[in-house]
Amino acid sequence: MPISRRTFAAAAVCALLPLSGCGSGDDGGSSDASGKIEGDITFQTWNLRANFKDYFEGLIADFEKKYPGTEVKWIDQPAEGYADKISADAAGGTLPDVVNVSPDLVAPLAKAGLALDLDKAAGQYRKEYLDGAWASHRIPGMTGTYAFPWYLNTGPLFYNKSLFEEAGLDPDQPPKTYDELFADALELAKKSDGKVATLANVPTVEDFGRYGVQLMNSEGTAFAFNDAKGVELLTKYKELYDAKALDPQALTATPESSGKKFLTGAVAMNPGSALDLGNFKKQAPNLYKNIGITDQITSTGHVNMYVMGVMVNAQTKKKAASVAFAHYVTDAEHQMSFAKKVAIFPSTAGSLDDPYFTKEDGTDETRVRVAAAKSLKNAVNYTPVLFSEQMKTALRNEVAKALQGKESPEEALDNAVKACDTLLQQQG
Amino acid sequence: MASSTVSRARPDSRAPDVPRGRRVRRQLPSSPWLFAAPGLLIISAFILYPFVSTLVNAFTDRRTLIPGEFVGLANFRELLHDDMFWIGLRNSSLYVLGVVPALVILPLLLALLVQKNIPGITFFRSAFYTPVVASIVVVGLIWVWLLDERGLINSLLEAIGVGRIGFLSDQWLLLLSAMAVTVWKGLGYYMIIYLAALANVPRELHEAAAVDGAGAIRRFVTVTVPAVRSTMALVGALSSVAAFKVFSEVYLMAGPSGGPAGEDTTLVMLVQRTGTGLTGRVGYASAISVVVFVVTVALMLLVLRADRRGEA
């Protein structure tokens, strides 16, 4: 039978139509998560399989045993490009039922109706978590909470004691505030004739927060880090850059590249996590012998807290099972057992009072853990929930212009705030 | 006999002797379409649909998770006032100017070097081709390591008293370094194309020129270059399109922010940065993609037209 042109065109359109549905942003539907906990669900984590395969397989097996008729398929994605993977899944309608997220990833998903409002669907669990942690997945301009809080971290700051000693600085008195950091960094650069920088990264929005700069207005509708305090911080960083106390390649650095600089002794201080100690031991034994561990630099008395969450896909067909599993992963018992496997901290109420987080046994690992747990109690998540990747790039580029002297710190921050506000408005 | 049986069974004067098992059935009008359907479907899904979709999106304010609405030429008007777009256009254009002449000329010289069949030449041909097959990520990382402030090249420069050079921290040196990597990686590929072209240049022409007293350089200019001129145009067209669309080398060497203050951003990097992620501006990124498409088509036409004019 001959195929007419019209039939062929219709067939082609039919074949392509499903693709054009990408990102159509259906509404999230009901928040009702009641009903029998059963069915197959998918659970996506963020680069956890390599180190915690057994933990998650055990966790899933226990859940399936507790709720017969459920089956959890575990997907783990690499750290690199995680946000892109989520956005591709979200746009393609293949977002897993339960997803490991950070607050800045939740915001656009919630706005697109893809994150379940847990205040409505799982409000009964709210009291199990620290208030601040539960609030961390709220989105300015929206009502509701869009992910269960999972683990928290502050991350220590490592420093190279021998470089401090060579510069005549006391290796047992690392800088604690930004003012102390700037003074020590200039001294280190001067004594090493510009060969040893103290930092390898330009200031981020979290640095502005820890310096005491107000990041957004009180309504959360516009950025405000171009105030006098912000200008002061950037001016100090310019001084560091000119004195080579900030690595010359800081303007293009990534966390990986600055970590390598620290490993090779080109940089005296670098933020990290307790997991890095193992790397230092293996890759740079001399550095490991001289490693100093201190808290994040802060002038506000509050360190930055990184928050992880577990979100439920608002469009899942298995809401009851998904909510139950997300809660199961993040409840006090399982957060505690996960915390004992890795240097993270539970977001559940009362967990940080466990002796595991309060008593040292003399090793570096426990010292880092106890110090971090202590600092967590008044830590602040300085990363604005609505601060997107595009905004990070805008700020970074303007900071670079100021450091290079192409713009004054005032101009640079005004431009950065303007660009971020425009992006914020475009987000809707 | 089988043939006569067939003739009796089906008196078809056009194929009286074809055995039953081998007889070709009458072709249906739809048959060509059925054969072409798998290919057409693949082309439609992975080439035509994304292309048309990009064109359509360029006129919308679509974002990653939000369909958006028709905004007419708003995205293109915004491009005119976007400093980063002009930086991207400048860098992509500079990349064409810096890379294309080198990729047209150097592989030809390399091909002339390795053209002769002398002992061990296969090794050199393979060696020059190796960068082509190496992963661009590996290549990028190696060159970042070499050009780092504390890398091998800077250590050597310091040892001979030149001092360290900020290959990866200076806006222009970074772009030049990325261009050098592109040329280094592309030499072998275009060398192979030239080797095929050189094999077709009649030896008699060289011999006649030599008899007339032409030296090696004169023979190159008067015999080799005219003979491979069309290949040079092809290499020019291919390399200019690739250079204008450069992403990996600059991304790996300049970092995701596109060098200091984003000054090394190319247009394709801008498309990636603007249009991806959960808050990506797909509509705006599509508008930049349309500009990239128009410029690359123009580049192709320009090079091919120049070649045709040269032939006339």
Structural features, described:
The complex is a heterodimer of chains A (428) and B (312). Chain A has 428 residues and is of the alpha/beta class. Chain A is 46% helix and 10% strand. Chain A contains 18 helices and eight strands. Chain A has helices spanning 5-20, 49-66, 82-92, 103-111, 118-121, 131-135, 161-166, 178-191, 205-211, 228-242, 255-263, 275-283, 285-289, 319-330, 332-339, 364-376, 389-404, 409-427; strands spanning 39-46, 70-77, 98-101, 148-153, 157-160, 269-271, 291-294, 306-312. Chain A is globular, with a radius of gyration of 24 Å. Chain A starts with a helix and ends with a helix. With 312 residues, chain B is mainly α. Chain B contains 14 helices and no strands. Residues 1-13 of chain B have low confidence and may be disordered.
- Helix/strand structural class of chain B: mainly alpha
Distance between the termini of chain B: 63 Å
**How far is the first residue's CA from the last residue's CA of chain A?**
52 Å
Record field, number of beta strands of chain B: 0
Cross-sheet strand order for the largest sheet of chain A:
2-1-3-8-4
By oligomeric state, this entry counts as heterodimer
Task: Quote the average pLDDT of chain B.
Answer: 89
Overall geometry of chain B: globular
Largest sheet of chain B: none
